[in-house]
Design a protein that fits this description.
Length: 71
């Protein structure tokens, strides 16, 4: 993208690409991002397991009365 736009010069005066590079260097490495992504996936799988368990409990037919063992 050029410094010139339809209305005049860019307000960042060309500092945008340099700022983007600085922010990328300050961020976590690819290995760290990979670990965070895996952790996010595992967290969501845990939530899914809890929800599935609750659905299974709620889907069981209600038992009317009580059972008495007969000898």
């Amino acid at each position: 993208m050029s410094e010139q736009s339809g209305t005049g010069k860019c307000m960042c005066m060309g500092a945008g690409p340099a700022l983007t590079q600085v922010m990328e260097n300050l961020g976590p490495s690819e290995a760290v991002r990979s670990h965070f992504k895996a952790a996010r996936v595992e967290f969501l799988k845990g939530l899914r397991a809890m929800i599935d368990s609750k659905i299974q409990d709620l889907s069981k037919p209600e038992q009317k009365g009580s059972t008495i063992p007969v000898e």
